[in-house]
Amino acid sequence: AQSVSQHNHHVILSEAASLELGCNYSYGGTVNLFWYVQYPGQHLQLLLKYFSGDPLVKGIKGFEAEFIKSKFSFNLRKPSVQWSDTAEYFCAVNSGGYQKVTFGTGTKLQVIP
Amino acid sequence: DSGVTQTPKHLITATGQRVTLRCSPRSGDLSVYWYQQSLDQGLQFLIQYYNGEERAKGNILERFSAQQFPDLHSELNLSSLELGDSALYFCASSDESSGEQFFGPGTRLTVL
What we know:
Number of helices of chain B: 0
Mean pLDDT of chain A: 91
Radius of gyration of chain B: 13 Å
Helix content of chain B: under 10%
Low-confidence stretches of chain B: none
Shape of chain B: globular
Number of helices of chain A: 0
Mean pLDDT of chain B: 93
Order of helices and strands of chain B: EEEEEEEEEEE
Largest sheet of chain B: 7 strands, mixed
Oligomer: heterodimer
Largest sheet of chain A: 6 strands, mixed
Protein backbone atom coordinates (compact mmCIF):
# COMPACT_ATOMS: atom_id res chain seq x y z
CA ALA A 1 0.00 0.00 0.00
CA GLN A 2 1.19 3.48 -0.73
CA SER A 3 1.84 5.97 2.05
CA VAL A 4 3.02 9.56 2.27
CA SER A 5 5.08 11.14 5.05
CA GLN A 6 5.40 14.81 5.75
CA HIS A 7 7.91 15.19 8.53
CA ASN A 8 7.33 18.84 9.38
CA HIS A 9 4.00 19.40 11.04
CA HIS A 10 4.39 23.07 11.80
CA VAL A 11 6.90 25.48 10.28
CA ILE A 12 7.34 29.11 11.24
CA LEU A 13 9.36 31.41 9.00
CA SER A 14 9.98 35.10 8.64
CA GLU A 15 9.11 36.79 5.36
CA ALA A 16 11.82 36.42 2.70
CA ALA A 17 13.15 33.22 4.28
CA SER A 18 13.55 30.17 2.09
CA LEU A 19 11.19 27.25 2.44
CA GLU A 20 11.62 23.54 2.00
CA LEU A 21 8.90 21.11 3.04
CA GLY A 22 9.71 17.43 3.00
CA CYS A 23 7.56 14.73 1.43
CA ASN A 24 8.45 11.07 1.17
CA TYR A 25 6.29 8.34 -0.25
CA SER A 26 6.43 4.59 -0.24
CA TYR A 27 5.46 2.89 -3.45
CA GLY A 28 7.73 1.04 -5.80
CA GLY A 29 5.95 1.70 -9.06
CA THR A 30 5.13 4.69 -11.21
CA VAL A 31 3.53 7.53 -9.32
CA ASN A 32 1.94 10.88 -9.93
CA LEU A 33 2.84 13.40 -7.23
CA PHE A 34 1.01 16.49 -6.08
CA TRP A 35 1.30 19.37 -3.68
CA TYR A 36 -1.92 21.01 -2.56
CA VAL A 37 -2.32 24.18 -0.51
CA GLN A 38 -5.16 25.08 1.83
CA TYR A 39 -5.34 28.76 2.77
CA PRO A 40 -7.12 29.57 6.03
CA GLY A 41 -10.83 28.93 5.72
CA GLN A 42 -10.58 27.62 2.18
CA HIS A 43 -10.54 24.30 0.37
CA LEU A 44 -7.49 22.51 -1.03
CA GLN A 45 -6.09 23.82 -4.29
CA LEU A 46 -3.42 22.34 -6.51
CA LEU A 47 0.00 24.00 -6.25
CA LEU A 48 1.89 21.76 -8.63
CA LYS A 49 2.07 18.23 -9.95
CA TYR A 50 4.55 15.77 -11.38
CA PHE A 51 3.65 13.02 -13.83
CA SER A 52 6.81 12.45 -15.85
CA GLY A 53 9.67 14.26 -17.55
CA ASP A 54 11.72 17.00 -15.90
CA PRO A 55 11.88 16.12 -12.20
CA LEU A 56 11.96 19.80 -11.28
CA VAL A 57 8.41 21.05 -11.43
CA LYS A 58 7.35 24.65 -11.22
CA GLY A 59 3.98 25.58 -9.82
CA ILE A 60 1.99 28.67 -9.03
CA LYS A 61 3.13 31.54 -6.81
CA GLY A 62 6.83 30.78 -7.17
CA PHE A 63 6.70 27.27 -5.71
CA GLU A 64 8.67 24.39 -7.13
CA ALA A 65 9.22 20.77 -6.22
CA GLU A 66 11.84 18.23 -7.11
CA PHE A 67 11.11 14.56 -7.65
CA ILE A 68 14.03 12.38 -6.57
CA LYS A 69 13.11 8.85 -7.46
CA SER A 70 16.01 7.23 -5.62
CA LYS A 71 14.95 8.91 -2.41
CA PHE A 72 11.18 8.54 -2.95
CA SER A 73 10.93 12.23 -2.24
CA PHE A 74 9.03 15.20 -3.65
CA ASN A 75 10.08 18.19 -1.57
CA LEU A 76 8.42 21.55 -1.98
CA ARG A 77 10.54 24.70 -2.14
CA LYS A 78 10.19 28.43 -2.40
CA PRO A 79 13.21 30.75 -2.30
CA SER A 80 11.47 33.62 -0.53
CA VAL A 81 8.18 33.21 1.32
CA GLN A 82 5.57 35.90 1.83
CA TRP A 83 3.04 36.42 4.56
CA SER A 84 0.34 35.35 2.09
CA ASP A 85 1.94 31.88 1.91
CA THR A 86 0.62 31.15 5.39
CA ALA A 87 -1.41 28.00 4.80
CA GLU A 88 -1.40 24.25 5.20
CA TYR A 89 0.45 22.25 2.57
CA PHE A 90 -0.39 18.68 1.64
CA CYS A 91 1.68 16.27 -0.39
CA ALA A 92 -0.22 13.55 -2.23
CA VAL A 93 0.63 10.52 -4.33
CA ASN A 94 -1.44 8.63 -6.84
CA SER A 95 -0.61 5.25 -8.27
CA GLY A 96 -2.36 2.38 -9.90
CA GLY A 97 -5.18 2.23 -12.33
CA TYR A 98 -7.81 3.11 -9.79
CA GLN A 99 -6.46 6.60 -9.19
CA LYS A 100 -6.56 6.26 -5.41
CA VAL A 101 -4.81 9.29 -3.98
CA THR A 102 -3.05 9.20 -0.63
CA PHE A 103 -2.47 12.45 1.21
CA GLY A 104 0.18 13.25 3.76
CA THR A 105 -0.79 14.64 7.15
CA GLY A 106 -0.07 18.20 6.07
CA THR A 107 2.39 20.89 7.14
CA LYS A 108 1.14 24.13 8.61
CA LEU A 109 3.28 27.04 7.47
CA GLN A 110 3.13 30.30 9.36
CA VAL A 111 4.97 33.26 7.83
CA ILE A 112 5.67 36.13 10.16
CA PRO A 113 5.77 39.60 8.59
CA ASP B 1 -13.68 28.02 -8.52
CA SER B 2 -12.91 24.32 -8.93
CA GLY B 3 -16.21 23.42 -10.56
CA VAL B 4 -17.11 21.10 -7.67
CA THR B 5 -20.13 22.17 -5.66
CA GLN B 6 -21.17 21.10 -2.20
CA THR B 7 -24.30 21.79 -0.21
CA PRO B 8 -25.00 22.86 2.39
CA LYS B 9 -22.13 25.13 3.35
CA HIS B 10 -22.88 24.88 7.05
CA LEU B 11 -24.89 22.38 9.04
CA ILE B 12 -25.65 22.47 12.74
CA THR B 13 -27.39 19.51 14.30
CA ALA B 14 -27.69 17.55 17.51
CA THR B 15 -26.17 14.28 18.65
CA GLY B 16 -28.03 11.22 17.47
CA GLN B 17 -29.34 12.91 14.34
CA ARG B 18 -28.78 12.02 10.69
CA VAL B 19 -27.63 14.38 7.94
CA THR B 20 -26.97 14.18 4.21
CA LEU B 21 -24.23 16.10 2.47
CA ARG B 22 -24.36 16.60 -1.26
CA CYS B 23 -21.66 16.97 -3.87
CA SER B 24 -21.71 17.61 -7.61
CA PRO B 25 -18.46 16.85 -9.42
CA ARG B 26 -16.87 18.84 -12.21
CA SER B 27 -18.42 18.28 -15.58
CA GLY B 28 -16.90 15.16 -17.12
CA ASP B 29 -15.34 13.78 -13.93
CA LEU B 30 -16.54 10.30 -13.04
CA SER B 31 -14.79 9.94 -9.68
CA VAL B 32 -15.96 11.48 -6.44
CA TYR B 33 -14.01 11.38 -3.19
CA TRP B 34 -15.13 12.27 0.31
CA TYR B 35 -12.78 13.55 3.01
CA GLN B 36 -13.19 14.55 6.61
CA GLN B 37 -10.97 17.27 8.03
CA SER B 38 -10.82 17.98 11.74
CA LEU B 39 -8.29 19.69 13.97
CA ASP B 40 -7.25 16.52 15.76
CA GLN B 41 -7.37 14.01 12.89
CA GLY B 42 -6.28 16.15 9.97
CA LEU B 43 -7.43 15.26 6.44
CA GLN B 44 -8.89 11.76 6.34
CA PHE B 45 -9.97 9.97 3.17
CA LEU B 46 -13.40 8.42 3.63
CA ILE B 47 -14.55 6.86 0.39
CA GLN B 48 -14.31 7.04 -3.40
CA TYR B 49 -16.91 6.37 -6.05
CA TYR B 50 -16.33 5.93 -9.74
CA ASN B 51 -19.24 6.12 -12.15
CA GLY B 52 -21.72 4.96 -9.54
CA GLU B 53 -19.61 2.18 -8.03
CA GLU B 54 -17.66 2.22 -4.79
CA ARG B 55 -13.98 2.05 -5.69
CA ALA B 56 -11.98 2.63 -2.53
CA LYS B 57 -12.70 2.88 1.16
CA GLY B 58 -10.70 4.73 3.74
CA ASN B 59 -11.38 5.52 7.37
CA ILE B 60 -15.14 5.61 7.02
CA LEU B 61 -17.20 4.70 10.06
CA GLU B 62 -20.04 2.19 9.79
CA ARG B 63 -22.44 5.00 10.77
CA PHE B 64 -21.46 6.78 7.55
CA SER B 65 -22.44 5.76 4.05
CA ALA B 66 -22.26 7.26 0.61
CA GLN B 67 -23.58 6.74 -2.86
CA GLN B 68 -23.13 8.14 -6.33
CA PHE B 69 -26.16 8.58 -8.52
CA PRO B 70 -26.54 8.12 -12.30
CA ASP B 71 -26.11 11.86 -12.84
CA LEU B 72 -22.78 11.47 -10.95
CA HIS B 73 -23.65 13.61 -7.99
CA SER B 74 -22.86 12.01 -4.66
CA GLU B 75 -24.31 12.06 -1.19
CA LEU B 76 -22.62 11.32 2.10
CA ASN B 77 -24.97 10.17 4.84
CA LEU B 78 -23.90 10.53 8.46
CA SER B 79 -26.10 8.93 11.10
CA SER B 80 -26.21 8.61 14.89
CA LEU B 81 -24.08 11.71 14.99
CA GLU B 82 -21.60 12.23 17.80
CA LEU B 83 -19.81 15.35 18.97
CA GLY B 84 -16.61 14.02 17.43
CA ASP B 85 -18.18 14.03 13.98
CA SER B 86 -17.98 17.81 13.93
CA ALA B 87 -15.61 18.58 11.08
CA LEU B 88 -15.24 19.95 7.59
CA TYR B 89 -16.35 17.46 4.96
CA PHE B 90 -14.81 17.93 1.56
CA CYS B 91 -15.78 16.36 -1.69
CA ALA B 92 -13.38 16.17 -4.62
CA SER B 93 -13.67 14.94 -8.17
CA SER B 94 -10.81 13.82 -10.30
CA ASP B 95 -9.43 13.97 -13.75
CA GLU B 96 -9.18 10.27 -14.58
CA SER B 97 -6.18 10.69 -16.80
CA SER B 98 -3.99 12.11 -14.05
CA GLY B 99 -5.55 11.62 -10.64
CA GLU B 100 -5.46 15.34 -9.99
CA GLN B 101 -8.26 16.15 -7.60
CA PHE B 102 -10.47 19.22 -7.60
CA PHE B 103 -11.94 20.08 -4.24
CA GLY B 104 -15.28 21.57 -3.39
CA PRO B 105 -15.69 24.35 -0.82
CA GLY B 106 -16.66 21.89 1.91
CA THR B 107 -19.53 21.48 4.34
CA ARG B 108 -18.86 22.50 7.92
CA LEU B 109 -20.77 20.17 10.23
CA THR B 110 -21.27 21.12 13.85
CA VAL B 111 -22.81 18.54 16.17
CA LEU B 112 -24.07 19.99 19.44
